[in-house]
């Protein structure tokens, strides 16, 4: 019987290097360009501070119980806002080089409702103030920083400290101390603390704080930093720049009350933060496969994402190849109380689809996905399915995203073996796999306006 001679072929790792090198270089340039664009957007160019005066100003507005609409007649809200806006308009009118360099807005809620509602109220109150301010002053998006305190335990601690009339004051402070010193409180810890304060001494201290202190915690606070030219004179020395300092007590939520006037309601906030992220799957990184992904939040708890991997390592003298590249597109829907508090956080489900190719050979039998010598589309395998995951905040700008996907992986792949300096095809197979087709433990870098993780109690 005559033996069949194996067919010789040129696998993609022999002859496709120029194409692959150009592809890798092009992808690298794209990533560098993307990072440069993001960096320039996040860091606006500010003129040199030489011969310029840096000034700061701030204001605070109050809200009704369980409300996030802006009442200009409550506690002098309208007067304080008008004074700040008039000051900035006056400076900008006198100086054409006037520049607002920093705008920080903090939203706060008193601890009487559920944590999810308090977090939502603090976010809506911050944006109500921003929306009103943006109607009168032109603001670059990149300078705005939002902070949502939710249940403002730190602010309550400061108010109790300064009010000697609080019943059982020392015991209240002892209960509040962990919320001030701890880096974060979980939802369970926050709810437990609220219940303990409510039941302390038959609720007498809580009733006092509810009437006398809680209204001061229902606020939004705005801090602005701006620059203007210093007009120097030759003979007399220039007056010292007027720097209006922001008191720490204001950040810690001390308030003042003023005479009320007729209320004016402001409509819904129309300007929203922008949420996106860049990510790298650490499982691929461990396997020496460089990869990058990007995700964009569309609103209504939906997001879209794209991932790309490219590992094309060569060791021809030993016939060792570890090569894989491809990409993936997907869409996600976010759910749970964490997702309600902040986009791109908490539980998510989604769908994904992608293509990939590979060439693995370690001195013996090799495995190659697709047709020898073809393009990605000639030798790709198709991957699609559904996924579940959870994105866990670990710092102000970082999450870790855990995901697992079930679906279909299909296409053609070839077994081959090296002999002398040639490669011979053993057999071609069709892959039809149903099961786990995706695993992800990604390090996620949060980008965009307002896209930062907020710790419990207002600590970042």
Strand content: 35-45%
Compute the number of strand runs.
Answer: 14
Main pleated-sheet profile = 10 strands, antiparallel
Order of helices and strands: EHEHEHEHHHHEHEHEEEHEEHEEE
- The end-to-end distance, rounded to whole angstroms, is 77 Å
**Uncertain runs with pLDDT below 50, 5 residues or more?**
1-5, 12-19, 40-50, 241-271, 456-460
Question: Any key phrases for this structure?
Answer:
460 residues, 4-stranded mixed β-sheet, alpha+beta, elongated, 11 helices
Task: Please give a structural write-up.
- It is elongated, with a radius of gyration of 30 Å.
- The strands form 2 sheets. Strands 1, 6, 7, 8, 9, 10, 11, 12, 13 and 14 form a 10-stranded antiparallel sheet that branches. Strands 2-5-3-4 form a 4-stranded mixed sheet.
- The N and C termini lie far apart (77 Å).
- The protein has 11 helices and 14 strands.
- 28% of the residues lie in helices and 37% in strands.
- Helix 4 (153-162) packs antiparallel against helix 5 and helix 5 runs antiparallel to helix 6 (187-199).
- The chain has helices at 17-42, 77-94, 115-134, 153-162, 169-181, 187-199, 204-212, 248-251, 282-286, 337-341, 376-379, and strands at 7-9, 52-62, 99-109, 144-151, 219-229, 276-281, 291-299, 302-315, 320-335, 346-362, 366-369, 381-393, 398-419, 422-447.
- Residues 1-5, 12-19, 40-50, 241-271 and 456-460 have low confidence and may be disordered.
- The chain is α+β, with helices and mostly antiparallel strands.
- Strand 8 and strand 9 form a beta hairpin.
């Amino acid at each position: 019987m005559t033996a069949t001679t194996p067919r010789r072929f040129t696998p993609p790792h022999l002859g496709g290097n120029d194409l692959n090198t150009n592809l890798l270089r092009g992808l690298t340039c794209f990533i560098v360009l993307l990072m440069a664009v993001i960096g320039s957007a996040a860091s606006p160019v500010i003129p040199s501070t030489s011969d310029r005066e840096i000034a700061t100003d701030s204001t605070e507005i109050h809200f009704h119980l369980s409300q996030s609409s802006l009442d200009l007649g409550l506690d002098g809200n309208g007067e304080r806002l008008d004074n700040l806006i008039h000051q900035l308009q006056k400076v900008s009118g006198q100086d054409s080089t006037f520049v607002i360099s920093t705008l920080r807005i903090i939203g706060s809620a008193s601890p009487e409702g559920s944590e999810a509602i308090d977090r939502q109220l603090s976010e809506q109150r911050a944006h109500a103030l921003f929306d009103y301010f943006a109607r009168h002053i032109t603001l670059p998006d990149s300078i705005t920083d939002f902070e949502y305190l939710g249940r403002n335990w730190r602010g309550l601690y400061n108010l109790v400290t300064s009010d000697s009339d609080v019943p059982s004051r020392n015991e209240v402070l002892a209960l509040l101390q962990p919320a001030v010193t701890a880096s974060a409180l979980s939802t369970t810890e926050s709810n437990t603390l609220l219940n303990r304060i409510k039941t302390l001494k038959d609720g007498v201290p809580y009733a006092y704080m509810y009437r006398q202190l809680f209204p001061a915690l229902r606020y939004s606070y705005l801090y602005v930093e701006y620059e203007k030219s210093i007009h120097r004179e030759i003979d007399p020395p220039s007056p010292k720049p007027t720097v209006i300092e922001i008191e720490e007590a204001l950040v810690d939520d001390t308030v003042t009350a003023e005479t009320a006037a007729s209320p004016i309601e402001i409509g819904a906030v129309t300007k929203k933060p922008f949420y996106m992220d860049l990510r790298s799957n650490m499982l691929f990184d461990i396997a020496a496969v460089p990869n990058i992904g990007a995700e964009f939040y569309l609103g209504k708890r939906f997001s879209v994402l794209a991932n790309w991997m490219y590992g094309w390592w060569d060791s021809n003298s030993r016939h060792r190849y570890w090569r894989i590249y491809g990409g993936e597109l997907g869409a996600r829907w976010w759910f749970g109380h964490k997702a309600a508090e902040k986009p791109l956080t908490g539980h998510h489900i989604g769908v994904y689809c992608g293509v990939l190719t590979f060439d693995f050979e370690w001195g013996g039998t090799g495995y190659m996905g697709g047709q020898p010598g073809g393009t990605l589309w000639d030798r790709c395998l198709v991957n699609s399915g559904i996924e579940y995951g959870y994105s866990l905040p670990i710092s102000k700008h970082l999450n870790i995203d855990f995901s697992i996907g079930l679906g279909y992986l299909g296409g053609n792949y070839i077994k081959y073996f090296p002999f002398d300096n040639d490669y011979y095809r053993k057999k071609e197979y069709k892959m039809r796999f149903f099961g786990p087709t995706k695993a992800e433990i990604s390090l996620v870098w949060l980008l965009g306006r307002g896209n930062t993780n907020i710790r419990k109690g207002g600590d970042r």
